[in-house]
Amino acid sequence: MAFTTMRDRTLHFPPSTLDRYAARAPLALALAALLAGCASDDRYPSLALRDAERAEESFEPVIADIPVPQPSPLPAATENRLAGLVTAARESHAAFVAALPSARRAVAAGANGGVTSDAWAAAQVALADLDTRRSATAVPLGDLDLLYVDSTLAFQKIDQVAEARDAVIALVSEQDRILQDLRARIRP
Known about the structure:
The protein contains 4 helices and no strands. The protein is mostly helical and 188 residues long.
C-alpha cells in the first residue's frame, strides 16, 4: 500500500512489497541478457528455394485403375422385413379405405350441424377413427426410414428399400389428402 505525505512527497512501500520486487530483479536481468544474446545474431536462414526443392523435370501423375467399391446386396432378412412392412402398410391402408365411406357420411351429416350437435360429434369420432388407421399406415413408414438409413450406413444397395419407402409414402400422402378434405368440410 503506497501513501504520500504532504511534506516530503515520497512514496513509502511496506517491506513485503520491496522483498518481492527484490527477489524478481535477478531473474528479470538474466532473461534480458539471454534475449539480448539471441537478438545480436545477424545470420538468419535464407527463405530462398534450395537445390533439392527445384523441379528439373516434368512429372506425369500416376493414374491407377482403382475400382469403385460397389454397395453390397441387402441381406435376406432385410428383404423379408421390407416385404412385411409394405404388406402391413397396404393392409392398414385397406382398412382406412374400408372405413372411408362411413366417415364421409358422418362428415356430410355433421357439416350442417353445429359444434354442439350429435352429428358433428359423430363426424369427429369418424375422423379420429380415420386418423388412427392413418397412424397404423405411418408406423411401417417409420421402420422403412430406419431401414433406409441403416442400409445406407452399412453401404448396402438401397434401391429396394427406397421403392418400398416411396410406395408407403404414397399411401400415407393419399390418406393425408383425404383427411384434409374431410376436415375442411366440417370446420366449426
